[in-house]
Amino acid sequence: MITDHLTPLRCAIHDRKMTPPSSPWIEAARYCVAGLFDIGFHRDSELLLVVSSSGRGVFDCLTGAKIARDYADDVLTDA
C-alpha cells in the first residue's frame, strides 16, 4: 500500500547515511524483518525476541546469531 503522505519520510530515511554505532555499541549482525510487531530483551541474558507477521525469532545480541525461528502464522492469537 502506497501512502503519499509518507513519501517525504521515506525519502528522508532512504537518503540517510549509514554510520557505525556509537560506543559502547558494536554491530554484531544486520537483519531485515518485514512486518515487525514487537521486540523484547531477555532479563538475564543477551537474547532478543523478535515477533513479526511471519513468526518469531530469537537472536543472540553478542554474536548476532539467529538461534531460533518459528514460522507460525498465529503469533498474535491468545488461543
Strand order of the largest sheet: 1-2-3-4
H/E element string? Answer: HEEEE
Low-confidence stretches: none
Largest sheet entry: 4 strands, antiparallel
Nearest-integer average pLDDT: 89
How many DSSP E strands?
A: 4
Number of helices: 1
Number of domains: 1
Helix content: 10-25%
Walk me through what this model shows.
It contains 1 helix and 4 strands; from the N terminus they run αββββ. It is mainly β. It has one domain (22-79). Strands 1-2-3-4 form a 4-stranded antiparallel sheet, with no helix packed on it. The protein is flat and about 40 Å long.
Question: What's the short version?
Answer:
Helix content is 11%, strand content 29%. With 79 residues, it is mainly beta.
Sequence-ordered SSE layout with sheet pairings:
Layout (H helix, E strand, L loop, with lengths): L6 H9 L20 E6 L5 E6 L2 E6 L5 E5 L9
Antiparallel strand pairs: 1-2, 2-3, 3-4
